[in-house]
Design brief:
The protein is of the alpha/beta class and 336 residues long. The chain folds into 2 domains: 186 residues, 3-Layer(aba) Sandwich (Rossmann fold); 106 residues, no CATH class. The chain is 45% helix and 9% strand. A 6-stranded mixed beta sheet has the order 3-2-1-4-6-5. Strand 2, helix 3 and strand 3 form a beta-alpha-beta unit. Helix 2 runs parallel beside helix 3 and helix 12 packs parallel to helix 14. The structure holds iron/sulfur cluster. The site of iron/sulfur cluster (SF4) has 11 residues, from helix 5.
Length: 336
């Protein structure tokens, strides 16, 4: 049975005072489920504040399924248009290359990886958090109560388990100023995976059956065939889960497991080659101890394969080359 939304008393009071609801969606199952439940509650209770839905387009790092899915899902669920925001200074591919060049100029490129990682989540900070903060400041310059709703769950990781369900932002640029108060709310923090899928009208068993059929019948890259099959199953979540992905994130995420990385590579070979280029240039693997170049070398160009062979020979320690000291310039604990 689908689980109901628990609304903490503090949140209920804020909503009754006219707090605006800002729903952060990513195209993933968790934010879909959160949006559905929040919209149901908003229409049921008749809260006076705005209800806005925002997404950060990760551009070259985004699965091509995601933005169309978000636009359709938001419009069908709420009748509203999602507001799409992007980092103007460049996407994450740009950000990693810029970091590499900066490290080179500082003489640290042989010691510090250009990639983000679990302990250096500058990607999330720049591509998502900073962009949402700018959106809040622009659209609510003063005299506003805002609930920034994020669909993260305790089950996902130990770090997420310890996040507070309600937290006031106290740091710039969304600190209380000009009578603007922003609170982060994690409405589905206690939900299990099964709760999320049942909110979307699916069971885990049915999802597994769909995945088996996709695996048996759809070749990587066959988007038309995939969409046609999903239609027969009346499946409306992001297609990446039907491919077998555990998470819907960047096409190739620095935190992804091997399964999600493999799907990302097979369905996005151009992007794969782009990222391998930075591995080969910097001499640092995409994840600590895991080289993209090693995962699917048949998809690399001849030149990239040659360089990869050379890199392995000339730098036998390459696969364990890691930063030996904290990575600057940013190490952050983020509200994501
Ligand atoms: S999905 Fe992964 S690579 Fe992309 S911004 Fe988030 S942590 Fe970074």
């Amino acid at each position: 049975m689908a689980r109901h939304l628990q609304i903490p008393q503090t949140i209920r009071e804020l909503l009754e005072q006219g707090a605006h609801v800002l729903v952060n969606v990513s195209g993933g199952k968790d934010s879909d489920a959160m949006l559905k439940l929040l919209w149901d509650a908003y229409t049921l209770h008749g809260w006076r504040g705005d209800f806005r839905v925002v997404t950060c387009d990760l551009q070259r790092n985004e699965w091509d399924f995601s933005l169309p899915h978000i636009q359709k899902f938001v419009s069908e669920t709420t009748g509203k248009q999602v507001e799409v925001i992007r980092r103007e200074q460049g996407d994450l591919v740009d950000q990693w290359w810029t970091r590499y060049r900066t490290l080179q100029q500082e003489g640290r490129a042989d010691r510090v990886p250009p990639w983000s990682s679990a302990s250096a989540r500058f990607c999330t900070k720049a591509q998502k958090e900073a962009q949402v903060n700018k959106f809040i400041v622009k659209h609510y310059p003063q005299d506003a109560l805002i609930l920034s709703c994020i669909g993260i769950r305790a089950d996902e990781s130990p770090a997420r388990k310890h996040k507070q369900v309600v937290q006031a932002y106290t740091q710039s640029p969304t600190a209380p100023t000009k009578n603007r108060h922003v609170n982060r709310w994690l409405p589905i923090h206690e939900f299990s995976l099964s709760d999320v899928w049942s909110t979307l009208g699916w069971t885990l068993e049915r999802l597994e059956a769909l995945r088996s059929e996709v695996k048996a019948n759809i070749q990587p890259g066959d988007r038309e065939g995939l969409y046609a099959l999903l239609k027969t199953w009346n499946y409306h979540a992001n297609p990446v889960y039907a491919l077998g992905n555990d998470r819907c994130s960047c096409r190739l995420c620095v935190l992804a497991n091997q399964n999600d990385l493999r799907n990302g590579i097979l369905w996005n070979p151009d992007h794969y080659r782009d990222l391998v280029e930075l591995e080969l240039t910097s001499g640092f693997s995409f994840q600590q101890g895991r080289w993209l170049a090693e995962m699917q070398p048949d998809l690399l160009s001849d030149e990239q394969r040659q360089r990869w062979t050379q890199l392995r020979q000339t730098a036998p320690q390459a696969s364990v080359k890691i930063a030996t000291k904290p990575i600057s310039p940013v190490q952050l604990t983020l509200p994501w």
